[in-house]
């Protein structure tokens, strides 16, 4: 696993303190992405972070707690990005394009984290999965509201608002699956392409 | 893991013979989907199929051979569906809509298989991954050709044909991630919604 994700932020997982707890999260993301959650042990994660298993247990009681923290921080961040764009000034088209650009950029830059979060949802404990599903419902509601406002304002023509919302979010999330930091498109370029495609999906007035 | 996938075909993996080899593939898909490739042993797979590990080795020499067979059959089938629609009569819009409906239906009905195939690509041996990537390149070429033909015929307005092709395929593939057989939309309904959204993405003439 490369450090490609580290290009997206000055310090990945900078919100996690102390430093040892942050390093363990970074190591857990890499280990889960490479081998899958179930094939990874807390010993593997501690080893990647250059720590002993005992040092890991000071910060995280279980492997599931690591997955939950990764998933929670990732979803909180994605929701905050969408809410910032939804609450900005501008037409529905400008806000929808901004939300898509921002959401795509996050999934491109943090693609390893996003893959772990998406593909290992079933490995979360029931109460944690319920909490994450609620955050996803909120992200869906933010995008649905922008689209609904555009329809009400006569800016968009959308026969199926819930279905189109689902498709817009799915299109952006799947960037994490195929995005390659060594590929020909930068996160910003994919964001610009996708913003244009999404405005076409909602038949935005030019 | 439910048998929801079995609703998509009379006999899942019916192309695989003999029957013991077919049952082992079904068991491998379920095991990989639940626990991930690396956390699954050939003993787990044999046990799910009601066989001994020795009986498994008659049909598959390694766990990787099982993943390769699953991935190969899945990709062959998806490519064949796209080629059938691309080669049908009709305008570019009709063929593109048909390809999207067919590709979406496959990813919805066979969502467990599609997830394994997508998420475990890195677990394939190098020569097998190269082979699968070539099949994906061919699927991309089929869709790109329909879009290019539509542009040439003046039916579509697409500034970035490779980028739009990538987005169309990504949108359809991600159905496998979120599709829920107990959800409110059937595979055909998702296919119809997505065909409409994709025709909007290419600005098809009405």
UniProtKB/TrEMBL annotation, chains A, B:
Transmembrane stretches, start-end: none
Pfam families the UniProt entry points to: TetR_C_24 (PF17932), TetR_N (PF00440)
Residue ranges of every copy of the HTH tetR-type domain listed in the record: 18-78
DNA-binding region of this protein: 41-60
InterPro entries for the chain: Homeodomain-like_sf, HTH-type_TetR-like_transc_reg, HTH_TetR, KstR2_TetR_C, Tet_transcr_reg_TetR-rel_C_sf
An example molecular function term from Gene Ontology annotations: transcription cis-regulatory region binding
Domain of life: Bacteria
The keyword DNA-binding belongs to this UniProt entry's keyword annotation: yes
PROSITE patterns registered for this protein in UniProt: HTH_TETR_2
Keywords: DNA-binding
Name of protein: TetR family transcriptional regulator
